[in-house]
Amino acid sequence: MEISEIVEFFKGEEIILPKKIEIILSLQKEFGIINQSYENILRKIKEKNEQAKKMQDFIYNKIKEYLLECKSCPLCFADCHTQKVAGEGNFASPIVLIGEGPGEEEDKLGRPFVGRAGQLLNALLNKFNIDRSRIYITNVVKCRPPKNRTPYVNEVKACSNILNLELEFISPKVIITLGSTPLKFFRPDKSITQSRGIWIKEKDIWIMPTYHPAYVLRQRGEKLEITKKEIYTDFKNALLKLKELLK
Ligand code: URA
Predict the structure, then answer these.
(1) pLDDT value at position 4?
(2) Exposed (0-12), middle (13-18) or buried (19+): which is 108, by Cβ within 10 Å?
(3) Which CATH fold would you assign to the domain 79-245?
(4) Can you tell me the distance from the alpha carbon of 106 to that of 98, in angstroms, rounded to the nearest whole number?
(5) Closest residue (by CA) to atom 7 of ligand 1?
(6) Which of 106, 166, 176 to mutate to test the pocket of ligand 1 (most atoms within 8 A of CB)?
(7) Which residue among 152, 189, 212, 243 sits deepest, i.e. has the most Cβ atoms within 10 Å of its Cβ?
(8) Does residue 174 have a pLDDT over 90?
(9) 225 band by pLDDT with thresholds 50, 70 and 90
(10) Cα(121) to centroid of ligand 1, in Å?
């Protein structure tokens, strides 16, 4: 069934459309692609041309609008929070990195991974000759938790609408989860110690759980060397998998 047919079906009834459908409907209107199936539209967004880039920007901005409007959990009222931090980068990237939530620097600058953990992440990406603007980087929660504590389940749940929209439209082939919170987003029953370096398959997406860069920064001596090697290996395996999937 076409989306326009679904809307027609409910005409006259008071319905709240899921954000995903709202985005598709406004995209169809904006780009004059009314009678196209959802799958076709998702394919169009992924093409490598000017129109696709404009569509990606359009969807990214819509998701950002929803994020800026969001008051679904106590984090946006917390004292330490000054602004929401949206994901950033290439909305057509076949790989997405997911962290936990903004820290102090990220909250100040309104960008993900720009503090010390972000510097380590950039250095790691540089080892693979990847500029971070070529990929997409985001967090499970978009508001800084007080004292950088781990976000609570209700906060993750409230913010999951935004992350789900990002993943729906980017539809990456590979995800690297950084630390426990994004791992638990996909597999609530798993711990990072059990799961690090072991692939998880979620629908068509390959997920590689690894350490959070801030955890690596807290290690010392031999443990630091081991941890650095492990996170490097996880990134290497994720990128090899991506290369294989893109063949
Ligand atoms: N830690 C995270 O999990 N995300 C950021 O954006 C920064 C630090």
Answers:
(1) 72
(2) middle
(3) Uracil-DNA Glycosylase, subunit E (3.40.470)
(4) 14
(5) 113
(6) 106
(7) 212
(8) yes
(9) very high
(10) 10
CB 78 within 8 A of CB 146: yes
Q: How far apart are alpha carbons 114 and 122 in whole angstroms?
A: 9
CA of 19 to the centre of ligand 1 (A): 25
What are the beta bridge partners of residue 98? 138, 177
* Residue 232 identity: Y
88 C-beta closer than 6 A to ligand 1: no
Q: 116 to each of 29, 36, 205, how far by Cα in Å?
A: 42, 45, 29
CA pair distance 180, 153, nearest whole angstrom: 13
- 17 exposure class (CB count in 10 Å sphere: 0-12, 13-18, 19+): middle
Name, in order, each residue with C-beta under 8 angstroms of 219's C-beta and a sequence gap of 6 or more. Answer: 226, 227
Strand pairing partners for 177?
98, 209
Q: Whose CA is closest to 142, among 218, 210, 69?
A: 69
Helix (H, G, I), strand (E, B) or coil at 177: strand
Q: Establish whether residue 117 lines the binding site of ligand 1, counting it when its CB lies within 6 angstroms of any ligand atom.
A: yes
**Domain residue ranges in the chain:** 79-245
**Per-residue pLDDT averaged across 109-138, rounded?**
98
Pairing of β 136-139 and β 88-89: antiparallel
pLDDT value at position 95? 98
Q: How far is the CA of 2 from the centre of ligand 1 (A)?
A: 39
Listed residue (130, 76, 81, 72) closest to 103, CA to CA: 81
**pTM for the model:** 0.94
Query: Strand 88-89 vs strand 95-99: parallel, antiparallel, or unpaired?
Result: unpaired
Token reading at 239: 């990128």
3-state helix, strand, coil in the chain (%, to 5): 55, 10, 35
